[in-house]
Amino acid sequence: MSKVYVGLGANLGRPVRQLRQALTQMSAWPQLHGLRVSSFYRTPPWGLTGQPDFINAVAELGTDWSPDRLLAELQRIEAEAGRVRLGERWGPRTLDLDILHVEGVSRSDPDLTLPHPRIAERAFVLLPLGELTPELELPGQGQVRALLAAIDTSGCQRLDAAEPD
């Protein structure tokens, strides 16, 4: 079984509800074990700035699925949430589920690069990831705690657990 970290994000519709629904769907997978979830964070958009803030989180899980199978299942959940892939990078979305890291796996191909190549640049990933596992060493990038210390997180805000949908 591999330990996997999945980034969750949304900024259209009802983002908090959409992240909770995705986590509910993931927790129902019989191949998933030990789901842990970070706090939710309100974060400014990255890349294309003229859009609503995002709600982001990270989930840690154990699974026997291959990264490709996990990617297919995550994309199915995104599609069910109304995600349409139009080729626009960093644009607004109803739900975004990214495999950030799979323990013991490094790969780079057109469908999936692991660990995610831009983790070190993104406060919206490093804040929730650091909450779950600050000591995690990402191959070729460094330790999460050190990566987090090197970026600006001033625009990010942890949400109260009772944040309305």
Describe this structure in a few short sentences.
The protein has one domain: Alpha-Beta Plaits (2-Layer Sandwich), CATH 3.30.70. The longest helix has 14 residues, at 67-80. The chain has helices at 15-27, 67-80, 123-132, 144-149, and strands at residues 2-10, 32-37, 41-43, 54-63, 96-102, 107-108, 113-114, 137-138, 142-143, 157-158.
Helix and strand topology:
Elements: E1 2-10, H1 15-27, E2 32-37, E3 41-43, E4 54-63, H2 67-80, E5 96-102, E6 107-108, E7 113-114, H3 123-132, E8 137-138, E9 142-143, H4 144-149, E10 157-158
Antiparallel strand pairs: 1-4, 1-5, 2-4, 3-4, 3-10, 6-7, 8-9
Keywords: ATP-binding, Folate biosynthesis, Kinase, Nucleotide-binding, Transferase
Family: Belongs to the HPPK family.
GO biological process, one term: tetrahydrofolate biosynthetic process
Polypeptide structure, described:
By secondary structure, the protein is an alpha+beta fold. It has one domain (2-158): Alpha-Beta Plaits. It is built from 4 helices and 10 strands. Strands 1, 2, 3, 4, 5 and 10 form a 6-stranded antiparallel beta sheet that branches. Strand 6 and strand 7 (113-114) form a beta hairpin. It is globular. The mean pLDDT is 90. It is an enzyme of class 2 (transferase). Keywords: ATP-binding, Folate biosynthesis, Kinase, Nucleotide-binding, Transferase. Belongs to the HPPK family. Pfam families: HPPK. Its EC number is 2.7.6.3.
